[in-house]
Design goal:
- The protein is an alpha/beta fold.
- Helices cover 33% and strands 16% of the residues.
- It is built from nine helices and eight strands.
- Strand 4, helix 4 and strand 5 form a beta-alpha-beta unit.
- The longest helix has 19 residues.
């Protein structure tokens, strides 16, 4: 599939024209969720979905690693989700849309927005898959019981998911609170791989994958990357993973498990600095390819 820059559709992921991105022909459905009601330190993640879609228009559709054009499977992009300041209502809307995507036997790809949106996606997936597990790539544990007066904060999203009795594998973690550390000591279904123990290594990957069930949802907080790679995030942490380690791990996951959906969250675009936007867009496209080629 060749893209002509004169005919980019800037409302579609990858910039592919509407006739190619038709719902009925698409394997993947992209849901942009411009929500950042509970963000801390720096706001602006609501601008993330639009920035990812705009950057994605300049990705080469041919994947030189996989020797395919994943876009050939079809990628349909929905309109920006209409969100509200009410977290419960926003999560309900996300869950409803994802449920419709799953009923159509398509793979949801959600663009954040803050990390709290992942809870709505996982609730929909949990209703479809009995053996669902979640792989979280992140700098932060996000396991607080409550933060700044709400249990639906981005800092609590994995705690809410863990309460659904879903196994969670966390990788790249390098910032947790005392409360979260104490929770991890007794949470036998949350498996944490700290960044300091895995940087530059791959001997942990198969063990991490062994804790995942047959159907896996992948949530990627972009601050899992070192800020040298992705400075455009609301709560950057030093010492993160790099591009090649992340895609190596994701490829290995896809070879051993079935990926049933994925998201990228917490991109906080910086005016004039589009490298972060492009990295996130390409990472999602990579995941589409891995999902198609592997298990």
């Amino acid at each position: 599939m060749e893209k002509d820059s004169q005919f980019f559709s800037h409302s579609n992921f990858l910039g592919i024209p509407p006739e190619i991105a038709d719902w009925s022909k698409s394997r993947f459905v992209v849901l942009p969720v411009p929500y950042d009601h509970t963000t801390t330190f720096q706001s602006g993640t609501k601008k993330g979905p639009k920035a990812i879609i705009e950057a994605s228009a300049y990705i080469e559709l041919y994947d030189e690693e996989l020797h395919i054009e994943p876009a050939d499977s079809g990628v349909h992009t929905l309109e920006l989700l209409d969100v509200t300041a009410d977290p419960e209502e926003t999560l309900y809307r996300i869950q409803s849309v994802i449920t419709d995507i799953l009923k159509a036997e398509k793979i949801p790809v959600t663009l954040g927005g803050e990390h709290s949106i992942t809870f709505g996606v996982v609730k929909a997936l949990r209703d479809k898959y009995n053996d669902l597990s979640v792989l979280q790539l992140d700098a932060h544990g996000d396991l607080r019981k409550e933060y700044q007066g709400t249990g639906l904060s981005h800092a609590c999203v994995m705690r809410r998911i863990s309460e659904l009795n879903i196994d969670i594998v966390q990788a790249g973690i390098r910032s947790i609170s005392k409360e979260e550390a104490e929770y991890l000591q007794k949470a036998n279904h949350v498996f944490t791989y700290y960044a300091a123990n895995i940087i530059g290594r791959d001997d942990w990957m198969d063990e991490a994958i062994s804790h995942l069930s047959g159907n896996v949802y992948i949530t990627i907080d972009v601050d899992v990357f070192d800020p040298a790679y992705v400075p455009a995030t609301g709560t950057p942490e030093p010492g993160g993973l790099d591009w090649y380690q992340v895609i190596q791990f994701l490829n290995r996951v896809a070879k051993k498990r079935r990926i049933v959906g994925f998201d990228a969250v917490e991109l906080c675009p910086i005016a004039g600095q589009v490298a972060s936007d492009f990295l996130v867009a390409k990472l999602l496209y990579k995941l589409m390819g891995y999902t198609l080629l592997n298990k």
